[in-house]
Design goal:
three-stranded mixed beta sheet, 25 helices, Butyryl-CoA Dehydrogenase, subunit A, domain 3, 594 residues, globular, mainly alpha
Length: 594
């Protein structure tokens, strides 16, 4: 059997206990008082305002680049082995120095705000500083939602032993909890392994794995309920103290969109739910069943779905990326060659996939759980899309390098669609059926299931503001949200009541509503791909320019740079129409008629 690669993070730091890791920890500790002293000199010499500002920004950005590199390294080690005590101690060390960094962040914003008019005027008029105008304006607006320095320091400190710890509890339990699969041999499967069996061809295996998975969540539901109550309770309290109308208000601002954009996006998805439900009914027809259960959502359709070795996946991704844009293919090859992708699913490793950046090294690495399916190939392509986005922006200062989640999904969805199109080129009817079904699986998850998560989280915040919620309430809310989204296309007695325990996104206090940005990214990414077909020979450079801009302005302005008006339902409809065309083809291929 093929050996799948594990990360070798030695090029970032030799280890958590290395002198290099310790040196950067100490560097942050030294940089904070240095910046504090510099901030104390603010406006002392008005004729040197520009020099003062440039030095303050340089120091501020270096602190956060160092913190991010340290934190990403410790977290990377922890996510491939959640019981790694050394990595956990390293994470605690990073969190400790982050408290000082958070405190200086508050002071930095307060000093800027104390001289708001002068700072805005300087950045608006000075050619060297003008590229940072949006970022500085955003920081000044953020300052208006800050508590006092003492309150922010206390909140950051308490968060380590509060909301963050609840999140780590969910992550640790969900990565290691499991069930006996084979009574005769005593073989156990983690809940992550059980969830991966949702892709099995045999419905009886899917059902059995699903039932065992639900039993695991049921067993731990009290722990997860305390955790989600803790995270959301802290979020509600802090958002209120910081002057946000509710957590969704803060999330919309973090996404750099407006309420109009969110309403247009959600409205377009709701209007088109019949299209997605048509696909789900056609899938039930293709599987020979009357109605899908939740455990059928990822069932394979088509008898010729190719399985990929890891080396085949690598060659396929690199080739198709290169056909679109050679720099993208070259980057993917570099990532594979230098072992930037941890691919094997194993006990103690978290599920899913993500990419993580090390700004001091100008590198972005990928975690995946490769299962040899096309979906596994697509997932790696997705994360490499994220990583390429980071590479394109890596030469920018930190303040222009950080883009919102809405735009963060652009490159990843685009990369997925590239390999999807590549796979379709030489596919026969059965392969085409399987590939289109895989694409529709993803699209339905990103639009319909994401909508259910959005509904659930809105209701969760509303109820949590009045008190703690019991596991039974949380599960009932989740089932209701799934019924609203999936409608009669799924068996209402075979839904997933514990999806609130599954998704780690709910347990992140700093980023609520970790859901609608995926739908934004899916539909915007499809829109960008349609644009690329108008001038495929030269679109690669335009694409890089779009990615370069993502951290430099609001989402409406960035998307307008390629001719998109995201405030209108008609724009989002274009992406859904593309999905709808594949729904029609899928129905034709499997002989389904309404």
């Amino acid at each position: 059997m093929e050996t799948l690669p594990h990360w070798d993070l030695g090029s970032i730091y030799p280890s958590i206990t290395s002198k290099e890791f310790e040196a950067d920890l100490q560097a942050v500790k030294a940089m904070v008082p240095t910046l504090r002293a510099h901030l104390g000199d603010a406006m002392a010499q008005k004729q040197a305002l520009k020099t003062w500002v440039q030095e303050a920004i340089r120091q501020y950005q270096l602190i956060w680049d160092t913190i991010e590199t340290l934190g990403s390294f410790a977290n990377a080690l922890l996510t491939v082995n959640t019981s790694d005590e050394t990595a956990m101690r390293g994470m605690n060390q990073v969190e400790e120095v982050s408290l000082d960094a958070q405190a200086i962040h508050v002071e930095f914003l307060n000093v800027l705000a104390a001289h708001d008019a002068a700072i805005r005027a300087l950045f608006a008029s000075d050619a060297d500083l003008k590229p940072l105008l949006f970022a500085i304006t955003e920081l000044l607006d953020l300052q208006r939602h800050q508590m006092s320095e003492a309150e922010e320091a206390l909140a950051a400190d308490l968060n380590r032993s509060g909301a963050d710890s609840w999140g780590r509890l969910q992550e640790a339990v969900s990565s290691s909890a499991g069930s006996v699969w084979d009574e005769a041999t005593g073989e156990r499967k983690t809940v992550i392994q059980l969830r991966s069996m949702a892709f099995d061809k045999d419905r009886s295996i899917r059902q059995r794995a699903f039932e065992k998975e639900l039993a695991v969540w049921k067993l731990h539901e009290v722990s997860f309920a305390y955790a989600i109550n803790g995270v959301k309770g802290a979020t509600i309290t802090l958002d209120k103290r910081r002057g946000y109308s509710d957590p969704l208000d803060r999330s919309v601002r973090q996404a750099r969109i407006t309420d109009d954009v969110l309403q247009a996006l959600i409205g377009a998805i709701e209007t088109n739910l019949p299209t997605f439900r048509k696909y789900l009914r056609a899938k039930a027809h293709a599987l020979g069943i009357s109605k899908l259960a939740f455990y059928d959502l990822f069932a394979p359709v088509g008898t010729s779905a190719k399985e990929y070795s890891y080396s085949e996946a690598r060659e396929f991704i690199v080739r198709n990326f290169s056909d679109f844009h050679k720099p993208l293919g070259d980057f993917a090859e570099h990532a594979f060659e230098h072992n930037w992708i941890d691919s094997e699913s194993r006990s103690g490793k978290i599920g899913g996939a993500y990419c993580t950046s090390f700004p001091l090294r100008k590198e972005t690495w990928v975690l995946a759980n490769f299962d040899h399916s096309f979906d596994g190939v697509s997932t790696i392509a997705h994360e490499l899309g994220h990583a390429y986005h980071d590479k394109v922006t890596s030469g920018l200062p930190a303040l222009l390098r950080h883009y919102p989640m809405t735009l963060a999904e652009t490159a990843s969805i685009f990369a997925q669609y590239i390999v999807f199109q590549g796979a379709l080129k030489n596919a026969d009817d059965q392969q085409r059926l399987a590939l289109i079904e895989n694409f529709l699986q993803d699209s339905t998850q990103v639009c319909v299931d994401i909508l259910s998560r959005f509904y659930f989280e809105k209701e969760l915040f509303s109820r949590r503001a009045k008190g703690d919620l019991m596991p039974s309430e949380l599960s009932a809310m989740m089932v209701d949200a799934q019924k609203r989204s999936y409608g009669d296309a799924l068996d209402e007695n075979q839904l997933h009541p514990w999806m609130w325990a599954v998704k780690g996104h709910y347990y992140r206090s700093g980023l609520s509503f970790y859901n609608f940005p995926y739908a934004f990214g899916q539909l915007f990414g499809l829109g960008v791909y349609k644009l690329s077909q108008q001038d495929p020979e030269h679109f690669g450079e335009r694409y890089d320019q779009l990615l370069l801009l993502t951290g430099q302005d609001s989402a409406p302005v960035v998307t307008a740079s390629v001719g998109c008006d995201i405030t209108t339902i008609s724009f989002w409809q274009e992406g859904i129409d593309l999905i709808g065309s594949y729904v029609d083809e899928f129905c034709a291929l499997c002989g389904y008629k309404e």
